[in-house]
Write a structure and sequence with these properties.
This protein has 207 residues and is an alpha+beta fold. The chain is built from three helices and twelve strands, in the order H-E-E-E-H-E-E-E-E-E-E-H-E-E-E. Strands 9-8-5-4-1-10 form a six-stranded antiparallel beta sheet. A hairpin with a 5-residue loop joins strand 8 and strand 9. The chain is elongated and about 105 Å long. The C terminus is likely disordered.
């Protein structure tokens, strides 16, 4: 009887030791998984939504709407679609696309230094000199038809319906809550400039 009790105690000790070892090996793994998930957000973005250490790279470009407008920054600080002659007469159609993270950009007007933004609350397209505003972060997405769409990165992160930069038929910016990726009003051709600020589209200089 005494020998059986001793064997039982030994077996219980061994089982307890194995369970404790298994639990200790699982816990660090769970903690590691939590850390991995926590750092899936791009390290280029801080809590305020700006490029933490500045853009990774920038490109000069004209944005040509499928509605046959050039996107421009008017002298009153608003964005609007304009015709070719307006772009040729001044430098209000030249923008800088600043890459902040994969597919995330800021659109900065070269002359005024203002950024295009989409309010996550009112869905209004506006401009601001404050580069740190989260509303200035846009997701750039190339479509199968060769055109590009820009939609609110903040709205996308919050899991809400996407809001796109788009123009009305008169060239004025649309309320982003009334836009869709399928609307041609949200489709832009990104015409990149060369290093000297010029790009050739056919035989015409557009930058």
């Amino acid at each position: 009887m005494g020998m059986k009790m001793i064997l039982l105690v030994v077996v219980m000790f061994v089982v307890t030791a194995k369970l404790s070892s298994a639990h200790s090996s699982i816990k660090p793994k769970l903690q590691k998984d939590k850390l991995d998930r926590r750092y899936t957000i791009s390290p280029h973005l801080n809590n305020r939504g700006s490029c933490e250490q500045g853009p990774t790279h920038s490109r000069l470009a004209h944005l040509w709407s499928k509605l046959r407008f050039h996107l421009a920054m008017l002298f009153n600080g608003t964005v609007h679609g304009v015709n070719d002659s307006y772009c040729q007469e001044n430098n209000q159609c030249l923008f800088e696309l600043q890459s902040c993270a994969p597919s995330i950009v800021r659109i900065k007007h070269v002359t005024s230094g203002r950024f295009i933004a989409i309010s996550s609350i009112t869905a209004k397209v506006y401009t601001t000199l404050k580069s740190h505003k989260h509303d200035t972060l846009l997701i750039q997405e190339l479509l199968p038809n060769g055109f590009t769409v820009f939609h609110s990165a903040r709205r996308n992160r919050e899991g809400q319906e996407s809001m796109f930069l788009a123009l009305k038929k008169n060239g004025a910016p649309k309320n982003a809550s009334k836009t869709s990726q399928s609307h041609k009003s949200a489709h832009f051709m990104v015409m990149l400039c060369s290093g000297n600020g010029e790009t050739m589209i056919g035989n015409s200089r557009t930058c």
